[in-house]
Amino acid sequence: MKILSEKNVKNGEIILKEELKKLLEEDNAKIYEVIRIIERSPVFLKEHFNRLMNSINLSGIRGNINYEDFKKSIELLIDENKFDNCNVRVSYYYKECEILLFYFIDSHYPTKEQFCTGVHTVTAKVHRNNPNAKVFHAEYKEKIQKIIDETHAFEVILINEDDSVSEGSKSNIFFVKENKLVTSPDENVLLGVTRSKVIEVCENNGIQVERRIIKYEELENFDGAFITGTSNDVLPICSINEKEYGSAGNEVVKMVYELYRDEVMREIK
Questions:
Q1: Are 119 and 235 a contacting pair, CB within 8 Å?
Q2: Distance from C-alpha of 33 to C-alpha of 230, rounded to nearest angstrom
Q3: What 3-state DSSP class applies to 31?
Q4: pTM of the model
Q5: CA gap 78, 42 in Å, rounded
Q6: Cβ contacts of residue 215 below 8 Å, gap of 6+?
C-alpha cells in the first residue's frame, strides 16, 4: 500500500507522512475502511462510517467515533491535498487512546475495456475470520496476492470448507439467473457498501435479489456474474476458473451497472 498524501489527518489534526507511517507501524491488525473520492467528494460517507463502527464493535476494540468529527476529518484531508479522484483509507486502532487516521492511497480502478469485456477470476478455499468485520490481516493478504500472481486473475472467489461460495477476496459477488440476482447471506460476507447500494437500487427498481447459500457446483448454471466494491463499482465477470460467462453483455448486469452509477452521481452532486 502506497501512501500518496504528504498531509494526512490524525484525530482531526494534520500530520505529515512520516508521522503517519510510524503510527501505522504500531498495529498491524487494525480496523480500516476505503472510501472513494470522486470530483473531491466522498461517496457514501455515512455508510462507510457505519460499517467502520460495526467493524470496531464486532472486533471488541474500544471506540466511540463521532460521525461529524469523522466527516470533518475527511473534508480536511481533501482540502489539504490536490487529489480529485482517488481512494482514502481510514485506519483505526486503540493504544492508550483512540487513533483514527485518514490518508490518500495509490488507487487502481478497472479499465474501460475490463468493464466492456469482464474480468477473469479464480476460486480458492480460503476462509476469512469474522467476515462482517473489515480488519487488516497481512497473512491473508499475502496468500491472496500469491494466488493472483500465479493465475493472473483479477480477483479470487473464496470457497468455504463446505464448498459454498462466500465472496471475493476484496469484493462481493452476485450471480444472475434469468432476471434475478443471487448473492450470499449477509451473515457470511463483508457487508460491502457498494453491495448494499446495489441491493437497494435493485429492490427499488423491481430486480429481485435472493440471499442464500450458493454451492460451488451451481457456478455452472448461472447466466452471468459480477463483483462489487469501492474501486470496482459493478464489474462483470467473464470467467470463473474454466467456466465462461457472457456477463458484460447480460441485460441484467448492464441494468444494475447503470442503476448503481446513477446513484453514485446523485451522491456526489
A1: yes
A2: 10
A3: strand
A4: 0.91
A5: 9
A6: 163, 164, 165
Q: What is the pLDDT of residue 11?
A: 95
Q: Which long-range contacts (CB under 8 A, 24 or more apart) does 128-133 make?
A: 128/158, 128/166, 128/190, 130/58, 130/59, 131/166, 131/167, 131/187, 131/188, 131/189, 131/190, 132/54, 132/55, 132/58, 132/187, 132/189, 132/190, 132/191, 133/31, 133/54, 133/55, 133/58, 133/59, 133/190
From residue 138, give the alpha-carbon distance in Å to each of 88, 128, 161, 217, 262.
19, 12, 22, 30, 35
> Whole-angstrom distance between the N-terminal and C-terminal Cα of the chain?
30
Query: DSSP H helical segments within the chain, as ranges?
Result: 17-24, 45-59, 67-80, 112-117, 138-151, 193-204, 251-268
Nearest-5° angle of CA 232, CA 266, CA 88?
45
- Residue-wise pLDDT for 73-115, tens only, equals 999 999 999 999 999 999 999 888 889 999 999 999 999 999 9
What is the CA angle 123-239-157, rounded to 5? 25
Q: Rg (Cα) of the chain, in Å, rounded?
A: 19
Q: What is the largest CA-CA distance in the chain?
A: 54
Q: How far apart are the C-alpha atoms of 183 and 213, rounded to whole Å?
A: 8
| Of residues 28, 29, 97, 33, the one with CA closest to residue 62 | 97
Question: Cβ atoms within 10 A of the Cβ of 137, count?
Answer: 13
